[in-house]
Amino acid sequence: MRVNGVAAARPAQRVNAGDVVQVDVPSAPQRQAPTAEALPLSILYEDTSILVLVKPPGMVAHPSSAHRSGTLLNALLWHADRDPGQASSWQPRLVQRLDKDTSGLLVVAKSPEAHAALQGERAHFVKEYLAIVWGRPVPARGAIDHRLGRDPLDRRRVMVRDGGATALTRYRVLDRSRRHARGLSLVCCELVTGRTHQLRVHLAAQGWPIVGDQTYGEPSRTRIADTTVDRAARAFDRQALHAWRLQFAHPRSGRLMQFEAPVPPDMAALMATAALGRGLPRVLAPRV
Predict the structure, then answer these.
(1) Which of 177, 235, 250, 255 has the fewest Cβ atoms nearer than 10 Å?
(2) What are the catalytic residues?
(3) Cα–Cα distance between 31 and 47 in angstroms, integer?
(4) Tens digit of pLDDT for each residue in 214-228?
(5) CA dist., res. 137 & res. 101, Å (int)
(6) Cα–Cα distance between 49 and 36 in angstroms, integer?
(7) What is the per-residue pLDDT across 12-46, written as a single tens digit (0 to 9) for each?
């Protein structure tokens, strides 16, 4: 910084009326395009317009300043360059995103036209998630419609706030842990709107935080009587949230498509420990 052509002696230097202050503003760093990386992909379906895959927990969906490599998009770029079903490489476009520690189904468009069609598809687009939560949601079926907005004190967080964006979640309880393991529930949530962290914030706001969610939920203060179940739930190291079912109309043919993905091993292990999901084999088995 210069004042009247002379370098300022200190940042808090006083200026007078009529002084000319000159500040050198550094140019913004150029945004680097993501690079292709040979990473494994779990693809359930693929044609010339779309592909549907299962994202594992711990994988970032899209590159950011903190995660420039190792993301799902990096892997998709590699796949696109080597896709034998296409005349030339294509640019992957994520139709929806999942948080790093959320697992499950994602649909990827291979063209701007397919992406626009899927983004505008509301009549048949169904996104359902499985969550293991603390507590016993009552009623057992319902809707959560709290408005959501960024936390003014921490822009990385989302909170329930008046004047926020409308957000609607439908839920139903599939199972509850019983007797000495009482204290956990398996919940199916339908994401009607797609706000950032919507399910995590909505469930926490109702008093049913997702097990393992370090940002929006804390373990119940009441210990589960079955110490094995209690320890397993408190030691779970990510939010126990899985995008298990996806339904949409194909962007070109209009054909209704449905996909399901089994819960990953860590959630399956916790469900088995807490005896959650008994009598629900369709939740655990994929159907295409």
Answers:
(1) 255
(2) 99
(3) 31
(4) 999 888 888 999 999
(5) 23
(6) 20
(7) 888 889 899 888 887 766 667 788 999 999 999 99
